[in-house]
Fold this protein.
Amino acid sequence: MAVCDFNMCFTFVWAGWEGSAHDTRIFNEALRRPELNFPHPMGGKYYVVDAGYPNINGYLAPYKE
């Protein structure tokens, strides 16, 4: 999993998960573990994530019908 800022610079990378791990599992684990220093959106902002991630407060995934 990787996070980029608006300048296309990586701000977080977490490698090493097996290929069969779902994006949501990795994302939830990154949110759960404070020692990873996962960058959370601040001040009413949000991150745009792809369809493999959940729509939760601060993270906006595409609408699924």
User: Anything to note?
Assistant: The longest helix spans residues 23-32.
